[in-house]
Amino acid sequence: MLYYSLNNAAPLANFKEATIAGFAPDNGLYFPSVIPKFGSGLMGALPFIDKVTLGVEVMKPFVGNSIPEDILTDIITETAHFDFPLKKINDLVYVLELYHGPTLSFKDIGTLFMRKCLSYFLSSAQKKMVVLVATSGNTGASTIQRFKGIKDIEVVVLYPANHLSKFQEKQLNPADNIKVLKIAGSLDDCQQLVNKAFADKQLNEKLHLNTANSINIASWLPQQLYYYYAMQQWTEKAKPIVAVPSGNFGNISAGILATVSRLPINRLVAACNTNDILTNYLKKGIYEPSIVKPTLSNALDVSNPYNFERVQALYNKDFDLIKRRISSVKVDDKQTLATIKNVYEKHGYLLDPHAAVAYAALQVEIKSKQQRGMLLATAHPVKRLETINNAVGKIDTLSEIHNDMLSAKTTKPIEMNADYQTLKSYLMA
Ligand SMILES: *Cc1c(COP(=O)(O)O)cnc(C)c1O
Q: Ligand 1 centroid to 41 CA: how many Å?
């Protein structure tokens, strides 16, 4: 498999080259030159094959000759080491829980797959690397957990001040090869600093920068796997309408990728909070990033989702096709709180604020009793305990996990203004 840059001004790269580079040399996102179509054989076999076999079958065409099959099998075995249970909330709605990994969010899948690939590639290339990550909390936590103590890779995490919950901030604990920067700004500011660093040739040559979020194909592509794992467990006749809490659109674009490969999903819904850019785009065809407004579902506080370009590429930039295949629903904080409360009281299921946005989006999208919905629960509710407490009151089991985390000893982050020269001097030193 070869990958091209969506900026169309860089040479093609294989999986290994694209993974080691992160961004393409023209600062574009890499995108597969061919999207494999899996036949009815694989789709029919879904309920009968194990997670690892399925993962290898799906990822093999994307990885190509870059990784031998036995190593890929090991990587998938380790990446998919936790459960992805599909649970029924009520007659119409199911939830796929993606937060049973070590740092309690779905980011644990992409970050580990990427780290395993990098370790394999670096062992033969003997290159050192600095991984820069802008995070609203969860990617940072997962990257730290996955990269801590790894030889030849240093990690620098940037997160927006006043944006994370206490639990999330606690998870961002520096280590020998891990630096944590608390940036006075928004998530978009952090992402822009990272983008500037990548565009800075001098810095790049010195440090060999990479990134660990869905910009990197090795972190983006494995995210399609849990859509397959969900469909392994799907027993309803109707194909599901799948709602994905969407920030930078890495997750939903991986789901779209799976549907282009013919995974039988009815449609995908981008569940957004008030920072929603897609609703207007789908209505009018105008893509207009605005200023980010902080919300209770903070991982969705993104005004200009970088993976939107991948969404367009997946549909060959055909606006009418995009309009037919995906939709977008905007959910505000008031609805988010009310949804957490209603679903907990009526169905005994505890949604985190991101999953609540997706649940509320399904209420709009499910239009008849014959349809079925599935939402992706992207993080454990304990990560936003303050919001849960506001919505439903105190829950003892959650408070315990929360207090354990808060009493853990951690080192303070380095505080920094959202200023590129400051960041550059810091990185150069
Ligand atoms: C990162 C994150 C999202 C958004 O995912 P994207 O791939 O950026 O759209 C949603 N929910 C949670 C909990 C997250 O951590």
A: 32
- Ligand 1 pocket, mutate which of 138, 142, 190, 385 (most atoms under 8 A from CB): 138
**How confident is the prediction along the chain (429 residues), in pLDDT tens digits per residue?**
999 999 999 999 999 999 999 999 999 999 999 999 999 999 999 999 999 999 999 999 999 999 999 999 999 999 999 999 999 999 999 999 999 999 999 999 999 999 999 999 988 766 789 999 999 999 999 999 999 999 889 999 999 998 899 999 999 999 999 999 999 998 889 999 999 999 999 998 899 999 889 999 999 999 999 999 999 999 999 999 999 999 999 999 999 999 999 999 999 999 999 999 898 899 888 888 888 899 999 999 998 899 999 999 999 999 999 999 999 999 999 999 999 999 999 999 999 999 999 999 999 999 999 999 999 999 999 999 999 999 999 999 999 999 999 999 989 999 999 999 999 999 998
Spatial separation of the C-alpha atoms in residues 198 and 23, rounded to whole Å: 8
H helices present in 126-186, as ranges: 138-147, 166-171
Strand partners, 244: 270
Using CA atoms, how far apart are residues 103 and 420, in angstroms rounded to an integer?
29
Residue 422 Cα distances to 79, 181, 230, 292, angstroms: 36, 11, 44, 23
| Atom 15 (ligand 1) nearest CA | 138
Nearest-atom number in ligand 1 for the CA of 378 is 13
d(C-alpha 325, C-alpha 182), whole Å: 39
Computed from CA positions of residues 337, 341, 342, 347, in that sequence, does the dihedral angle turn out positive or negative?
positive
3 state DSSP class of 17: helix
Residues with CB under 6 A from ligand 1: 105, 107, 138, 214, 245-251, 299-300, 354, 378-379
Is the pTM higher than 0.90?
yes
